[in-house]
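Q: I have two molecules that I believe assemble together. Could you output structure tokens for the complex as a whole instead of separate predictions?
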Amino acid sequence: MADIKQTCLHSHHVSLGALMSPFGGFDMPIQYAGIVEEHNAVRNAVGVFDVSHMGEVRITGPQAERFVNHIFTNDVSTLETGKILYGMMLYPDGGTVDDLLVYKMGENDFFLVINAANIDKDVAWINEHAEGYDVSVAHQSDYYGQLAVQGPESEATLRDVLHIDAADLVFYTFKCVECGGEQVIVSRTGYTGEDGFEIYASHAVIVAMWEALIAAGVQPCGLGCRDTLRFEVGLPLYGDELSAEISPVMATLSMFVKLDKEEFIGKDACAQQKAEGSAKKLVGLELKDKAIPRHGYEVLQGDKVVGYVTTGYRGISVDKSLAMALVDREAGALDNELSVRIRKKVFPAVVVKKRFYKKSYKK
Amino acid sequence: MSKIIDGLYYSESHEYVRVEGNVGFIGITDYAQHALGNVVYVDMPEVDDEVSAGEEFGAVESVKAASDLISPVSGVVLEVNEALEDEPGLINKDAFENWIIKVELSDKGELDDLMDAGGYKAMLGE
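A: Yes, here they are, computed for all two components at once.
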């Protein structure tokens, strides 16, 4: 294992008294005031997350569009500059290398945002497959810091505290603005189910923005509530709901897999899973009891184990015990009655939609 | 610095026992509730269940994770704290006031294997 890394805001987290823990190779803040308080700040007002652990790769060159479309499941050929697509990079068997955002910066110019834990693997994967394409791959994770400002008051917070006018941005669009003497990327994106923004800039600018936001009373939020927030709106986390073994078709994310594209790595496997039905399927589960399903717990139909919990919580915005679970396809029909083994007992659960809480995006 | 009460018995896994006659009130310490954060569920045994010293008898769950409850003593469960079913966060408000189970002690000699307040304080390094 390589040494654990720190983001440019590490000392700020420590001085705020955050509970720190390793995540994706970085020593990251899990919580400051408490997961529930931070979660509610984002649902009801605004919160700021240090997500500088995320990785960034810039792909440019005459064949950049063709190359990105080769490694990415979504279709960038019709994407306009200033817009963003979510999708995956896949192995030939349909398993997921990573899920990511692709920003179109200009003609044949793309900015990829990848998961911290996958940075080394992804960069190697991208470089390996770039052979034979006339493209330039620049790994920029060490340059960029990233903040996520999330919640219904985030647009006003950007305007009043950071002096960034983002009212013109709709969901999944971005612009570059001048800030602290440099060009920073501001996008209307996030991982909470709420309206919000993500900002990419140099470490110095990210630190200055963080200090301004904290001084203005914006709630600092850790990865603890980032997970409860994304879970309640059914967003996947790589490692839980997507992995080398879990394809986007299994994770019911087929809308981000454009099978009508001419080709991309993993297309044939996804087309086959889509046509024949994948063996496993990601579903939502709601327990009648208050017991809490956790990652790895067995899911049963009668006495038979039919899958396992990928993420589970006692909801914060939804007062129920909930889980996402990867189960045999036949067991995963809506309203089907299953159960979850929690320590020594078995608790009844019903298959529900994974959107446990309604998203509030600015479309 | 967390609260530690004199006169209680403490385990290395951060449970306490308050003894009244032959009855033990078992809960988690203030240090433990603070380390867990918001308690959202307490998995408790049933009345008449037997618990054994050193063995798991339930769990306290924070938002993030489940943490096993290890019984510091052996005995039979006389009562579970039903208030925790509706309001598990009571443990965060006062962990010593809000015991989890009440046990008829089967071997008071087991108390000698536990720490007193001074010993527990030393273990926490406070």
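A: One point stands out. Chain B has a mean pLDDT of 95.
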